[in-house]
Amino acid sequence: MKTDSRPLADKMRPNTIDDIVGQRTLLGENGLVRRMVDNGKLSNLILWGPPGCGKTTIARALANSVDMEFMPMSAVFSGTADIKKAMDAARMNSQIGRGTLLFIDEIHRFNKTQQDTLLPYLEDGTVVFIGATTENPSFNLNNALLSRCHIGVLQPLSTEDLNTLISRAEEFLKTRLPLDAAGRVHLSQIADGDARFLLNTVEYLISAKFKNDLSPDELDNVIQKRAPMSDKNGDEHYNLISAVHKSLRASDTDAALYWTARMILSGQDPRYLFRRLARFAMEDIGLADPNAMQIALAAWQLYERMGSPEGDIALTELVIYLGTAPKSIGNYRAQGAAWRAARENGSLMPPKNILNAPTKMMKDLGYGRDYIYDPDTASGFSGQNCFPDAMARQKFYYPVERGFEREIKKRLDYWDAMREKINKKN
């Protein structure tokens, strides 16, 4: 008797979109995929979502819904020659009155030439094309291909969705999982929205024939605990660091700590985080707290010397400090304004009074004449002009009324008033 060696996730794969768990935005009433099925006409489609969220299942169900030949390919193992063979087969299907749905998994793996190879077949309707990707299509797919496809965005399955799958798996296998109530909840949580991981784990737990129901801790001991999702270089990497950065800007320190923990637990390089946090100290805190940059560098250096896990607390301390520090982009704006002025005004000479005169000729030309040594004045401020003679004074730096910049603003306002008074006298 032939046994079915397919994994449980494949055995349980739904045949219609009505049986698919989750993805209500696409599959629910008025959803993109639901409208295609209700109209009986499929359009070219890119399905973008994390692993195990149902991209392949949706593609197969769509083919079944309109009775089309389902032709799967993987961009990892296929090339231009494989595409052409698939199109020849699709044309043969067409001759006998049967349409073809070409499904290409990991479509972002195709290079520009391979993606362009698909275009004429999409144009003439040789196939209906569905591509699946875990990467942001706008970054990884050609505009020409994107313009011919709808984009369907899939989300990780919710805990409720995963609990439904657990119940379906028990019904399909005609047995119950060896988990206590807390263990069932824990399994849904560590699956992290991935139905494939969940069902593979269910299959293992049932085949292992445990004598007692497992608690969450016991479940962690018998399976490889799943780390929070992050691809280190792709969309999820940039999503997480963006969440850290924006949480710090919003002074939401607890949220920043959470997103930082997500990055570390998913295997991100702490040095990358330290570099981004040092940049944050410069750009988003600046002189509102001059210590922020020094603390960022000190925490970074401490981690380099101690490593993990001892140095991890330096990262946590830095995130807390930056999250609770006053924020200002005064220095960032000042740089931009000064650079624009430098580009617009060309190569103007500094005023001669602030130039050194190491030779007699330069003294005769007026270099250094009437220079005032500010620290030697009664107030420590002379009010002399240091802008080019041919350029009006400009103001680049506007400190905010927060943190240490409040004190800087008082000082600058005082000097501006003194400068105006001195200029009136002259």
Write the layout of secondary structure elements.
Elements: H1 8-11, H2 24-27, H3 32-39, E1 45-48, H4 55-65, E2 69-74, H5 80-95, E3 100-105, H6 112-123, E4 128-133, H7 137-140, H8 143-146, E5 150-153, H9 159-173, H10 181-190, H11 195-208, H12 216-222, H13 235-249, H14 253-265, H15 270-285, H16 291-306, H17 312-324, H18 330-345, H19 360-364, H20 405-425
Parallel strand pairs: 1-4, 1-5, 2-3, 3-4
Helix pairs in contact: 5-6, 9-10, 9-11, 10-12, 13-14, 14-17, 15-16, 15-17, 16-17
The fraction of residues in strands falls at 5-15%
Terminal residue distance: 107 Å
Largest sheet: 5 strands, parallel
Strand order of the largest sheet: 2-3-4-1-5
Mean pLDDT: 87
Low-confidence parts lasting 5 or more residues at pLDDT below 50?
none
Report the radius of gyration as a whole number of Å: 32 Å
Would you list the SSEs in sequence order as H and E? HHHEHEHEHEHHEHHHHHHHHHHHH
Number of continuous helical runs: 20
What percent of the residues sit in helical stretches (DSSP H or I)?
A: 40-55%
The structure class reads alpha/beta
Inertia-based shape: elongated
Number of DSSP strand runs: 5
Describe what is shown at a glance.
The chain is of the alpha/beta class and 426 residues long. The chain has helices at residues 8-11, 24-27, 32-39, 55-65, 80-95, 112-123, 137-140, 143-146, 159-173, 181-190, 195-208, 216-222, 235-249, 253-265, 270-285, 291-306, 312-324, 330-345, 360-364, 405-425; strands at 45-48, 69-74, 100-105, 128-133, 150-153. Helix 5 packs parallel to helix 6 (112-123), helix 9 packs parallel to helix 11 and helix 10 crosses helix 12.
